[in-house]
Amino acid sequence: MALTEDSDESLMDAVKKGNHQAFSILVRRHTDRFYKMAFRLCSNAQEAEDMVQDAFLKIWKNPAIWKSEMGAKFTTWFYRILINQNIDRMRSRKVVGVRDEYLNSFADHRVLQDQKMTMTQEQEMVERAFQSLPERQRTAITLCFYEGLSNKDAAQIMGLSVKGLESLLVRGKNGLKEFIGAYESPISMKGVRDGTTG
Amino acid sequence: MEQQDDLKYILNRRSAPPAPSSDLADRIIHAAMRTPRDEKKTIWQIIANIMNPPMRYAVGLACLILFIAVTYTPQTHTQDDVLTDYEFTMVLDVYDDEQWL
């Protein structure tokens, strides 16, 4: 039976039994998606790749942490691992002034020059505003808005109540507005105030 | 809903993440191949390890046994059984005294 057709959860059960092919399929299926999520959290290409690699190696090395009987989706469960990786990364480095890293990451050889040029002042401002938020607010926003998870799923991943998550989202939004307002960026929340969003 | 629209308006203006390295998935898979897994040992595997220990454990155990053997050599007699010269002289004196009596 071809493993490529199997669900993530049954592949993960096979990984528990030491099936390397199942692990390879999982990695190829989800690397890009998890990389984007990791990049949204840390804003550094190299660190995002390291986070994804470490998370996958963690489940390969110790697959017993996957409890299929809990009924969780693999992707939801993996998000939690990535988030914990990000917390560990920040604790170990005692990150200060993370927001500047994003711009430095564009010196990465893999980022094309034209991509650097197309990063507008507006995008730069939003990126700086996002990176100025506390880690939990950034995680909540990333899960709900960039990954498209429901508030319930995001709250479960973060180990919060739905109300707690919503509180983080509101504070995150206010933080973004304050930051952008303080720097009087070109967007300057004009569209938001005028109600011309979207 | 309005709050979410505001937030979306801001966040949609954030630039998209750059693409990952094209070989990222391959690197992860190869790294996993080189990584040993933490598997639970059965009771038989534990017993087998004891019966056939790795060299460093075997050498360590041999050294420990040797140390115990050298340090705690059993004594063949106790101090109480041995008379000192002084005690032996005293015994002779008593014997002599008894002879005179």
How would you describe this protein?
The complex is a heterodimer of chains A (198) and B (101). Chain A has helices at residues 8-16, 20-42, 45-61, 74-93, 99-105, 113-118, 121-131, 135-146, 151-158, 162-183, 190-194. In chain A, helix 9 packs across helix 10 (162-183). Mean pLDDT of chain A is 80; it is low at 106-115 and 188-198. Chain A is an all-alpha fold and 198 residues long. In chain A, 71% of the residues lie in helices and 0% in strands. By secondary structure, chain B is mainly α. Helix content of chain B is 62%, strand content 0%. Chain B contains 5 helices and no strands. The radius of gyration of chain B is 41 Å and the shape is rod-shaped.
Layout of helices and strands, plus pairs?
The complex is a heterodimer of chains A (198) and B (101).
Chain A: H1 8-16, H2 20-42, H3 45-61, H4 74-93, H5 99-105, H6 113-118, H7 121-131, H8 135-146, H9 151-158, H10 162-183, H11 190-194
Chain B: H1 2-11, H2 24-34, H3 43-51, H4 55-71, H5 85-100
